[in-house]
Design a protein that fits this description.
Layout lengths: L4 E6 L14 E2 L3 E2 L7 E8 L2 E8 L2 E7 L2 E9 L1 E6 L2 E5 L3 E5 L2 E8 L6 E9 H11 L12 E5 L4 H17 L12 H15 L15 H16 L6 H8 L3 H11 L4 H17 L8 H7 L5 H12 L3 H9 L1
Antiparallel strand pairs: 1-4, 2-6, 3-6, 4-5, 5-12, 6-11, 7-10, 7-12, 8-9, 8-11, 10-13
Helix pairs in contact: 2-3, 4-5, 4-6, 4-7, 7-8
Length: about 325
């Protein structure tokens, strides 16, 4: 019987752990600090399509995929992926389609909770062959550069693909009451591949589809670049909006549409990451207050609360562990 089986179960950041998962290769994940660190990966093959389920308390990972096109569907939490100097964010209700190459990814769980996602991997040569046999027109596949986010509401095909992926994972569950029949695997591959090919043609989607060249994505990319460069000096949302040449409302709308979060929440995450790097540095004179202020926080109480929520420990505990 075709069903999911576990291929990875990470519970720590031990250096001895090697990468194991869905993709051709990569580095072991760096689990975010939490009360219970864990990342599990399950995999099944439906004919030539690899189907995966990922659950994580939050992690960063760098993976390599040279032969397959990936479709990542977050069902809980959010994912941020960087490929060829471009960054995209996806949340529940969106499909992240990623071409071949090396990419860096960060997944964030709900608070409190986990990140859950469905992952489908399609062999690029199979898709190209299917496109040629069908005589379909439109843009030829460019797997080395293809990198898009599509809202399920963009077109019926996007909604159908998401629904089919959810149905397929239910059938692949070892405890499913209606397990996937072997004779249906070719049908599943064909219908999913056909819908993916349709989604990868930009003229098949309306202008508000969530493609990466939309103004909202450009606003978010520019804002994130500014945040990373000036996180310690930003005082208000207006500072970010002015740097991007847009209004506060446009900035907020863009972040809600693309990342499912506010720009201030994203800035806070960037500042927390910078503060943590300082707390874990070799600077023997580093203090919690100096790390917070250097990262752009102006209120130590709010900083400590946000830090504990994100990393599962007080900033003083991080500093003490680094020293002793």
């Amino acid at each position: 019987m075709t069903c999911f089986h576990q291929v990875a179960d990470y519970r720590s950041n031990q250096a001895s752990l090697r990468y194991g998962g869905l993709f051709a290769g990569g580095q072991r994940p760096v689990l975010h600090d939490a009360a219970r660190q864990r990342m599990t990966v399950e995999k099944a093959f439906v004919n030539a399509v690899c189907v995966g389920r990922v659950r994580s308390t939050g992690h960063d990972i760098r993976v390599i995929e040279e032969r397959k096109i990936s479709v990542i569907i977050p069902t809980v939490g959010t994912i941020t992926s960087e490929l060829s100097d471009r960054t995209l964010h996806a949340r529940p209700g969106q499909l992240l389609i990623v071409g071949r190459g090396i990419r860096s990814t960060r997944v964030m769980p709900t608070t409190p909770g986990t990140y859950d996602a469905i992952v489908l991997l399609f062999d690029q040569s199979d898709l190209t062959g299917m496109q040629g046999k069908s005589g379909a027109g439109g843009r030829q596949l460019t797997p080395d550069t293809f990198f898009q986010v599509i809202n399920e509401t963009a077109a019926p095909t996007a909604r159908h693909f998401l629904q089919l992926a959810q149905m397929l994972t239910e059938d692949l569950d070892p405890l499913a009451q209606r397990p996937l029949r072997p004779e249906s695997q070719v049908h599943w591959q064909d219908i999913l591949s056909d819908k993916l090919l349709t989604l990868m043609q930009p003229d098949a989607l309306p202008a508000a589809s969530g493609w990466a060249d939309r103004p909202a994505h450009r606003h978010v990319r520019k804002a994130l670049e500014f945040m990373h460069a000036a996180y310690e000096d930003i005082g208000t949302i207006s500072d970010i909006a002015v740097a991007c040449g847009i209004s506060n409302r446009t900035l907020e709308t863009a972040f809600r549409a693309v990342a499912g979060r506010s720009p201030w929440a994203m800035l806070t995450d960037i500042r927390l990451e910078q503060a943590r790097k300082l707390l874990l540095s070799d600077d023997i004179e580093m203090t919690v207050a100096s790390a917070a202020y250097a990262a752009g926080f102006g209120h130590l109480g709010r900083f400590a609360k946000a830090y504990a929520t994100k990393y599962g420990e007080a900033p003083s505990a991080t500093l003490a562990r680094q020293r002793y």
